[in-house]
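## Example record

The block below lists the input lines for one assembly entry, exactly as stored, with component labels intact.
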Amino acid sequence: TQLLEQSPQFLSIQEGENLTVYCNSSSVFSSLQWYRQEPGEGPVLLVTVVTGGEVKKLKRLTFQFGDARKDSSLHITAAQPGDTGLYLCAGEDDGQNFVFGPGTRLSVLP
Amino acid sequence: GAGVSQSPSNKVTEKGKDVELRCDPISGHTALYWYRQSLGQGLEFLIYFQGNSAPDKSGLPSDRFSAERTGGSVSTLTIQRTQQEDSAVYLCASSLMGTLNTEAFFGQGTRLTVV
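Predicted structure tokens for the full assembly:
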């Protein structure tokens, strides 16, 4: 079973601060995705990374896939209260099954 | 439909009763997933369907849990003799098979409360 770990589990910061959350595994994934889940909603895809070393930017969010395709990071610049939510990473294994990490719960205080 | 639809959105049941949760995936999506999310937690994988078959049932927590999918579309997750620890949000997702970079589209979930 391929497992994903995420850190930190919880993060509370002030508006305007920068932050990085991490997703790690001992397994190689063919692709890795980041989702954000807001209360009462299902997770929504933010980005998919496929190539080792790949960096993708989505406004204030920067996603990086590790060279060995086992880990990823999400960096948020100048966090805003609207960024509050549960950030989940998910790996797509060769069977095209989605394996989710436990998530990082982010709270951005105004 | 335009998105993944789950019903009911909320279900309160007495301990020991059976419940049936329904998921209507996006039309044309052959992969369907069930996850469970306890309060404040991440997603716990339950079961995965490719078409009507379930190649991975490893996440079902006990034999009280079962799921089926007919016609490659609607899926039902059945929990028999519910227990209080079954209380959680049950999320369904679907995706398009056969391609890399497939996105899992989630429903809003069914919030199950066992009293």
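The longest strand of chain B covers residues 88-95. The radius of gyration of chain B is 13 Å.
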